[in-house]
Write a structure and sequence with these properties.
With 479 residues, this protein is α/β, with parallel strands linked by helices. The protein is built from 13 helices and 15 strands. Strand 11, helix 7 and strand 12 form a beta-alpha-beta unit. The longest helix is centred in the middle third of the chain and has 20 residues. It binds adenosine-5'-diphosphate (ADP), 1,6-di-O-phosphono-beta-D-fructofuranose and magnesium ion. Magnesium ion (MG) binds next to helix 4.
Amino acid sequence: MDPIPTTPGEDNPSHLHPTTPSTPSTITPVPLPHLSDHLSNLAYYPNPLDSNPNYHPSDGFYISPHDVIQSHILHDLSAGAAAAASPAYHRAGPRRQIHFQPSEVVAAIVTCGGLCPGLNTVIRELVVGLWELYGVRRIYGVTAGYRGFYDGEAPVKLDPKMVNDWHKKGGTSLVTSRGGFDLGRIVDAIVDREFNQIYVIGGDGTMRGAVKIFNEIRRRKLHVSITGIPKTVDNDIGVIDRSFGFHTAVEMAQQAINAAHVEAESAVNGIGLVKLMGRSTGHIALYATLSSRDVDCCLIPEDPFYLYGEGGLFEFLYKCLKQNGHAVIVVAEGAGQDMIPRSPAQKVERDESGNPVFLDVGPWLKSELKSWWDRDHAGELFTVKYIDPTYMIRAVPANATDSLYCTLVAHSAIHGVMAGYTGFVSGPINGNYAYIPVQEVAEAKSVVNTKDHTWAWVRSVTSQPDFGKNSGRGSFGSV
Ligand SMILES: Nc1ncnc2c1ncn2[C@@H]1O[C@H](COP(=O)(O)OP(=O)(O)O)[C@@H](O)[C@H]1O
Ligand SMILES: O=P(O)(O)OC[C@H]1O[C@](O)(COP(=O)(O)O)[C@@H](O)[C@@H]1O
Ligand SMILES: [Mg+2]
């Protein structure tokens, strides 16, 4: 493929990079790193989609640097011009000119951190997309997370035939791991294996690692693009609307909540207690509660609760039992951690990636419930049925909605990397796919906002106490 000469105009490769829009606008795109930031004399080529029989690129097909997505689409018009000033991100999608010649691409795909429904779908779509859209033939899977770059099995050569049915399987066929982030050895391995496109699929920790790799690539002035594809079953990554796999996990959680409800309803003073994943955020618990409608109380890390006293959990539950004969509680694994007694060693325990290791809130709460009943209501029948679906909500293939997301996010990543962008993440912002600097994603965190309408909605469907308002009044004050 012949390089494109650099002539002024819309097709000038300099337009692949953020520029000042031709019409004055109050919207300034968030700058997106590009290989040309640290390398000079890059060549550009026509996009092979021009000659792909399945595509007929017409006006508007290719995304220009002037196509942006605003992060805030809700405005208070009384705030005047200031209302429109919110970060705008470059829109994801194919560019008219690409920087990588497909025959020179050596792509590496790696999955890191915990599982999430859809991981295998993203891998499949990266392989098929690189192969079919751009004609890339050298695609490798790095096994067992970041450590796989320099340790263990050699990268596996991937092709569409091999990954054909991966989307039907939960987990990651490339295998994943925590820890094992050795920056120097990872970048050395990238150089040794001549990888020039790195697709990193992972959560917040993975993105922090990707920032470091990106910075090291720039420091060494390597001709390597790196991109992050955000994966988090907890939905704890900021900037993007949500991660793939989150909706699937919420859907899976319904089975546990339904079972807890049936058990609770079928007992005298029955309590169904369900613990759901969510290390430091309660998104899964919240969405599972709202979609179920059988939940009486949703406990999340963002809304510290207490057990005894006026306005506390037990007072509320007693009311539920007297009114309805049963109650269903959903608790996120990160909730109530400050109330669970722990040894000094447990206080500082971390997993291999440095994440805090939590004590199990489920059995603790079950035991507290029993102690409360024995203490305050001895002689009355009481049952607690505890359900912990743990890995069952994430070790499954993606549902249809998440599957579509996986394809769109994988293709977005490919188009961006082929255009020479680097150090970025693809993800939906207000329903449209955007490119976001990986540094920004690594620093952003998505937590449940207990001041907004959604949390008010939870409280209105559950009628659970406003623990924040009442905090300090119970014998386990919130912290
Ligand atoms: N601050 C960090 N710097 C570099 N690497 C990190 C950092 N935090 C986590 N990692 C690495 O990213 C990978 C996944 O992190 P982890 O927290 O386990 O999962 P997730 O990415 O899903 O949040 C691990 O290999 C871990 O060592
Ligand atoms: O897979 P492990 O190491 O048992 O960790 C379980 C944790 O993984 C999570 O699914 C989150 O994982 P990530 O940080 O990889 O997104 C949490 O909900 C849960 O606490
Ligand atoms: Mg994480």
